[in-house]
Design goal:
The complex is a heterotetramer. Chain A is an all-alpha fold. Helix content of chain A is about 65%, strand content about 0%. In chain B, strand 4, helix 5 and strand 5 form a beta-alpha-beta unit. Classes of the chains: A mainly alpha, B alpha/beta, C alpha+beta, D alpha/beta. Chains in contact: A-B, A-C, A-D, B-C, B-D, C-D. Chains A and C meet through helix 6, helix 10, helix 11, helix 12 and strand 1 of A and strand 1, helix 5, helix 6, helix 8 and strand 6 of C.
Chain lengths: ~375, ~180, ~375, ~180
């Protein structure tokens, strides 16, 4: 490696960091505004035009806050944890192309690298949970470990199915493979698995059990303050952005689909904008889910992961393999995938919700005083036993 | 060498101040104050009746988020503690603890007459006559309970106070 | 069950977790210490008293008309219902006849307050199960109701409007048109809230079959109100011991089946609809007339004691009033529904997950103001 | 300027009217029924406004409550309220009972001396009596014999005195 290359990479990394930090600032503003819209509010209004400077103020304040070290904390683990969460989330972006030819390192094994690095986040969360010497944090850390490890499998499998279609692990090649049609048309089931598992990896609603503000008061981050907490925050939003970007790259045709009638510099610029627009659309979808759904419980989350998503992801791989092996036209894959997706939703509505009947409240009408003794309905114990 | 420097409220010069005396630092402290005042995260901590009005203030109709005020459940990430409700002697120690757990710089708003001086429970055997017996209070919001508008005004007063503090103390702004 | 037994014999110790007094979902300053084995709760121990303000003692030093202010602050979500309970007790002792119009005003306001209270429950319960939007929808409706309250009583929360022998003053002229608008809005709002949460798959998964309590146990623990009705007991003070003028209205009492969290939640949602029904009937039946009986400014009820039950949004709100004939109550005991309902918490939390603890606590809808008094 | 102490004003004791008794049919039937069911015990059946009042000896409370709950004709499954009233020399423990099926109501009263207030606990009869008894112990110092856990509920460990009693200073004010 020459010095020039070194400088090139250093500058690239710096640019990437600045870009990502900026994106996080935008993302927090977008999240607050989007949630506010869902909730009939205005969101930040006072700092800058429509609160555009709000994230900046938040960031500046956080950095200036006192950093507290709880007296019982495991010092080294406690201080290292934010970095252990933050660095992997940053490293991921080394191979993610933002637009055509705009990538720090165009690895042939790009997807493999992403899978390998994204697992590391668990370590940081566990460290934070352990280092804080706080029971809520500990519970949160353990929950995060269980959740992230289990959802890693469907996550990888969904990626794998896409890789099988292109026969490559290089992200640019994958995007190039979607020059005629985006893979969402071929792999709707894969998209569903990927997005669900991705939400779980992020720890976002409805899978935010390790933050669980109403139970665990913030989970592993409960004891962190000031800049260290800000680092966690940064990592979390970078990860959100990563999932959005990966969804766009793998399933929505990246900057390619539908194709643009330009070439040269105009195309490069527009491709970045097009890519970002798609990514933000996916992220808005994630925020929409956050604004709508309640949180799952840990056992339900695990059951959903292991009993539904993992088998489903394997089935997805197998059908993709069969279609590719026998050289069937790809629309058959679309069809099978859609049928499976429909079956999944049916199964969810039948089994994930509740085994008990949905409406169990009856209304008894009266006029004036009741004359008969109160109705004590026998409790159907048998229905509860399971 | 001025002997009074480096003590109490006037900490010693930092390298930054030595290299770029006054002009930049004074402005920067004001800038920091602007940042702080625009992102006051409150500790979600309702004690009694006023908590309901505090929640109303956070909700769609009044929406404190407009000022950048959001709630956090953990004291470690909070800047402002809104003591909303009657402080009971049994609750005194937890409140002190929560205040200690908040990172500097931190502020306290006493919301409602109970937190200010005991309110309708003045001289009850189990009520603390105002939260200022326990922790320093920056802004008192009168009312039983105060209307959401009153709480918003209290928060604006706090914002003004933060700015004023920064201006008066200049380069060594450390709100306490 | 067997797996659990095996797990318990392993050489582990239970982790003690302290929830509260400051915790986002203890609904105030309630503290519960739970021992968990992994994510399962082994034992739970509730602690209260972090809001014990000595109201009962303070009431003994106030005039009857001043006591109402303290009653406002007992159940600070359903203020008017508390005021009504106290005034009914004094009126019963004095054998006072309350003018018809005053009774209608009381019923209308109390039922509105019940809706407001249940709306708060609805929102906070959404927050407990992890959905962040319902609370904003709930508070939107609350804000509308509070707006009407303000035009009638002059205050958003602490009204001090229901007085011994009637109400403070007559309704304003614009009450009826405002009420008509509000009723329409509330009808829509309740349906919207119902759509948003009640039949959500994840919400069902979180609340169905969680924290069940049977009718016998519920009565044994003294659980009342919506929480009791969710267990399948048809018991409502408005029906079984009608106070004020409730026997004049035709309304339904929702009753659950399993006594689980979802039933407790939905009974409340349904109750809001029934309250609207009562308000509509009351608005139609109300006629002009005096709004206060002829009572001396400083009321001196005769010597004696009286116990009055009312149906507050949380259950059976009882007032035990002992009078010695002076202008101040000799002893005033408040039977707070949340206080009794909360006792069942230990029973409800058996074998639950940590995450369920929050959901169960939320479903009994406590207000610490009346628990600790 | 010292004013001479005024002589205590002579005042006629005001005539205090008694609240009229207004038992409904259900109440009259119940008072007869109670006399019949509880004839082994020394009870006094009266009425206050609209409730049947049964005055019993403190040592019988537990047994009578058991009968009141289990006897099918009385059927007091629901303990409405348990309260203590301080009458200076005696403390009166009131058990407000209600039958959900028959919808009749009664009050059980037991008077205990203030110096040594001992009442058997009814927690084995109604589990809901638990906190009511702890509260009575907290505020009035009534000892409910047989209660498994009579620790402070509303007050904290180390609180002096029984604030519910009339002898407790009314507006006791101490700087906290």
């Amino acid at each position: 490696m020459t010095v020039v290359q070194g400088i090139y990479y250093a500058l690239g990394a710096l640019a990437l960091f600045v870009f990502l930090s900026f994106m996080v600032l935008v993302l927090t503003w977008v999240e607050r505004k989007a949630l506010a819209r869902i909730q009939m509010r205005m969101g930040p209004m006072r700092v800058g035009f429509h609160g555009t400077l709000q994230p900046l103020a938040d960031a500046m304040k956080l950095v200036l806050k006192e950093d507290i070290l709880p007296s019982w904390a495991d010092r080294r683990v406690y201080w290292l944890a934010p970095l252990a969460v933050f660095i992997p989330s940053l490293l991921l972006w080394a191979v993610i192309p933002v637009g055509r030819d705009l990538v720090l390192a165009n690895l042939e094994l790009g997807l493999f690298y992403i899978v390998a690095i994204s697992v590391l986040t668990v370590m940081g969360l566990l460290m934070a949970g352990w280092g804080s010497a706080n029971k809520y944090a500990m519970l949160g850390g353990l929950r995060a470990a269980g959740q992230l490890v289990s959802y890693e499998i469907p996550f990888i499998m969904a990626i794998l199915a896409v890789a099988m279609l292109v026969q490559s692990l290089n992200l640019e090649t994958i995007v190039d493979g979607q020059r005629n049609f985006a893979y969402i048309l071929v792999q709707p089931l894969g998209l569903f698995i990927f997005l669900t598992a991705g939400l779980a990896e992020l720890g976002r609603t409805p899978f935010d059990i390790h933050h669980a503000e109403s139970e665990l008061v913030g989970g592993p981050f409960i004891e962190y303050s000031g800049a260290h907490w800000a680092v966690f925050f940064l990592a979390e939003y970078i990860n959100t952005f990563t999932i959005g970007a990966l969804t766009v790259l793998l399933f929505l045709g990246g900057w390619r689909w539908p194709a643009m009638p330009f070439d040269g510099f105009a195309h490069s610029t527009l491709s970045v904008i097009w890519f970002l627009a798609k990514t933000y659309a996916v992220i808005l979808f994630i925020f929409w889910i956050r604004g709508t759904y309640p949180r799952l419980r840990i056992d339900q989350l695990m059951a959903f992961g292991w009993k539904l998503l993992v088998p489903l992801s394997f089935v997805n791989i197998v059908i993709t393999g069969i279609v590719l092996f026998y050289g069937w036209p790809l629309w058959t894959l679309t069809l099978i995938s859609l049928v499976l997706l429909g079956a999944t939703f049916y199964a969810i509505s039948r089994h994930q919700g509740t085994r008990l009947e949905r409406m169990t409240v009856t209304v008894h009408s009266f006029r004036g005083t009741r004359s008969e003794p109160p109705v004590v309905q026998p409790q159907p114990e048998a229905a509860l036993e399971d | 060498m001025d002997i009074t420097q480096g003590r109490g409220n006037t900490p010693a010069e930092s390298i930054f101040e030595r290299v770029l005396p006054n002009a930049v630092t004074a402005k920067s402290s004001e800038l920091f104050a602007h940042a702080r005042k625009s992102s006051l995260w409150t500790l979600s901590f309702g004690l009694a009746c006023c908590a309901i009005e505090m929640m109303s203030t956070h909700m769609s109709h009044h929406d404190l988020d407009r000022f950048g005020v959001v709630t956090w459940p953990s004291p470690r990430q909070a800047d402002v503690m809104i003591v909303a409700g009657t402080v009971v002697k049994k609750m005194a120690d937890p409140i002190k603890l929560l205040y200690e757990q908040m990172p500097d710089p931190k502020w306290v708003i006493a919301m409602g007459s109970c937190a200010t001086n005991g309110g309708p429970y003045y001289r009850s055997y189990s009520v603390v006559m105002g939260v200022d017996h326990l922790i320093p209070v920056d802004v008192y919001v009168p009312g039983c309970p105060p209307r959401p508008e009153a709480l918003m005004y209290g928060i604006m007063q706090l914002q003004e106070k933060i700015l004023k503090d920064a201006k008066e103390r200049g380069a060594t702004s450390q709100a306490s | 069950m067997q797996v659990q037994q095996q797990a318990r014999t392993a050489d582990t110790i239970d982790l003690m977790i302290n929830m509260g007094p400051q915790h986002p979902s203890t609904h105030g300053v309630f503290r519960v210490v739970i021992w968990v084995d992994g994510e399962r709760i082994v034992k739970a121990e509730p602690h209260i008293g972090y809001l014990h303000r000595g109201s009962e003692k303070l009431c003994e030093g106030e005039l009857y008309s001043q006591v109402i202010t303290l009653f406002d602050r007992l159940d600070y979500v359903a203020n008017l219902n508390c005021e009504l309970a106290f005034c009914l007790a004094v009126e019963k002792l004095m054998a006072l006849e309350v003018p018809d119009r005053a009774s209608y005003i009381r019923v209308i306001l109390c039922e509105l307050n019940r809706i407001a209270s249940h709306m708060l429950f609805y929102g906070v319960y959404g927050l407990d199960v992890g959905a962040m939007t319902p609370i904003l929808y709930g508070f939107r409706e609350r804000e509308r109701i509070q707006g009407l309250f303000e035009s009638v009583t002059g205050a958003r929360m602490m009204h001090n409007f229901i007085r011994v022998g009637g109400v403070k003053e007559d309704l304003r002229d614009d009450f009826e048109p405002r009420m008509a608008v509000l009723l329409e809005e509330l009808k829509q709002g309740i349906e919207e809230c119902d759509d948003l949460l009640s039949q959500n798959e994840m919400f069902l998964a979180r609340t169905k079959g969680i924290g069940t309590i049977g009718p016998t146990e519920a009565i044994d623990f003294g659980v009342t109100g919506p929480s009791l009705r969710a267990s399948g007991v048809l018991e409502d003070v408005r029906i079984s011991e009608p106070y004020s003028i409730y026997e004049r209205f035709d309304f339904g009492v929702p009753v659950g089946t399993y006594g689980d969290c979802w039933d407790r939640y939905y009974v409340r949602v349904e109750e809001m609809r029934q309250s609207l029904k009562i308000i509509e009937q009351a608005m139609a039946q109300m006629e002009p007339g005096p709004v206060a009986a002829n009572v001396r400014r400083i009321a001196r009820p005769p010597k004696g004691e009286v116990y009055v039950r009312t149906e507050s949004p949380r259950g059976d709100f009882g007032v035990f009033l002992v009078s010695d004939g002076s202008d101040k109550p000799y002893r005033l005991k408040v039977r707070a529904p949340s206080f009794a309902n909360l006792q069942a918490l230990q029973y409800l939390l058996r074998d639950a997950y940590v995450a369920d603890a929050v959901v169960i606590l939320g479903s009994i809808d406590i207000i610490l103001g009346e628990v600790d008094r | 300027m010292e004013q001479p102490p005024r002589p205590p004003r002579q005042r006629r004791e005001p005539e205090v009217p008694e609240a009229p008794v207004a038992l409904d049919e259900r109440g009259t039937a119940l008072s007869a029924l109670i006399r019949d069911v509880l004839k082994e015990f020394e009870v006094e059946v009266g009425a206050a406004v609209d409730e049947v009042v049964v005055t019993v000896k403190p040592e019988d409370v537990s047994a009578i409550c058991r009968i009141a709950k289990d006897d099918p004709s009385l059927d007091f499954k629901y303990l409405r309220c348990l309260s203590v009233v301080d009458y200076i020399e005696t403390l009166e423990v009131n058990y407000h009972l209600f039958s959900l099926d028959k919808r009749h109501k009664a009050v059980l009263k037991a008077s205990v001396p203030t110096e040594e207030p001992h009442v058997p606990s009814v927690i084995s009869v109604w589990r809901g009596a638990d906190w009511f008894e702890r509260e009575g112990h907290d505020l009035f110092g009534v000892v409910f014999d047989g209660h498994p856990n009579l620790t402070p509920l509303l007050l904290y460990e180390g609180f002096e005195g029984f604030p519910g009693r009339k002898s407790f200073p009314f507006h006791e004010y101490d700087e906290w």
